[in-house]
Write a structure and sequence with these properties.
two-stranded antiparallel ribbon; 2 domains; about 40% helix; single chain; 8 strands; Rossmann fold; 10 helices
């Protein structure tokens, strides 16, 4: 069967996770530190979710396959609550979650950075007849900002976000929803991801292939063991698709 549908994760695959989201998570961690009256420094909060600050605190990076890289807000709650029990209550309060959404939208606006030559690559894939999907554990509000700033809004045929009602990765609901909406079976679908959550969602959905976007490319990372290929960014995808069956 020929491949007809390519589904992408967003953060770390289509956009550069550190350049785009680093300022947002630092701002959120600083806000949490304030709410617990400084009992835990925001540097410790960040390290607990796989975000490393440089010594001067001005820069840093998001670790590959860390808790924050997986994009699941619910995974952050126990990680931060383990450092200060009050955060378990604070982080599940609607006011805090609303503030997190506001901080994220404010911080990311105008800062969306592509990971490699994303737009030319997806433009080529679209011209070659592939349908393109996006499944993300991020919400619709910031996903809309990201897609608009990347210039990908008109290239993606179907977008499923964390608040679309299809669950979150590593569950396969988002992938299956895209397949159903575009009338393409998973057996004719490829998933492009950068975390274990992407890998597990794709294997549960029975996608034809999983392709890892990773710093270790062309070596397949340990946390995505059933990946068929590994690439450093999506710029390599049009050429790779010529050999995938």
């Amino acid at each position: 069967m020929a491949i007809e549908l390519i589904i992408f994760d967003k953060d770390g695959v289509l956009l550069d996770l550190s350049q785009t989201w680093f300022p947002a998570i630092v701002a959120i961690a600083r806000h949490a530190e304030t709410l617990i009256e400084g009992r835990v420094h925001h540097r410790q909060l960040l390290e607990a979710i796989g975000v490393m600050l440089e010594a001067d605190g001005a820069g840093g990076k998001v670790l590959e396959n860390g808790l924050y890289a997986s994009g699941t807000y619910s995974a952050l709650v126990p990680a931060w609550a383990a450092l200060d029990s009050q955060l378990a209550h604070i982080m599940t309060h609607p006011e805090f979650r609303a503030e997190v959404t506001r901080i994220a939208a404010t911080s990311v606006k105008g800062k969306t950075a592509p990971k490699g030559n994303v737009v030319p690559a997806l433009t080529t894939l679209k011209a070659e007849g592939y349908l393109l999907g996006l499944v993300t554990n991020d919400g619709a509000a910031t996903t809309t900002i990201n897609m608009r700033e990347l210039g990908l809004s008109k290239l993606i045929d179907k977008i499923v976000t964390a608040d679309s009602g299809h669950g979150k990765k590593p569950e396969p609901g988002g992938i299956l929803a895209i397949c159903e909406a575009l009338n393409i079976p998973p057996q004719k679908t490829i998933m492009i991801g950068d975390t274990q959550a992407d890998h597990d969602a794709a294997t549960k959905a029975n996608c034809r292939h999983v392709i890892a976007v990773t710093n270790t490319a062309p070596s397949i990372p340990d946390f995505m063991p059933e990946s068929s290929y590994a690439i450093s960014d999506c710029g390599a995808l049009p050429e790779l698709m010529k050999q995938i069956r």
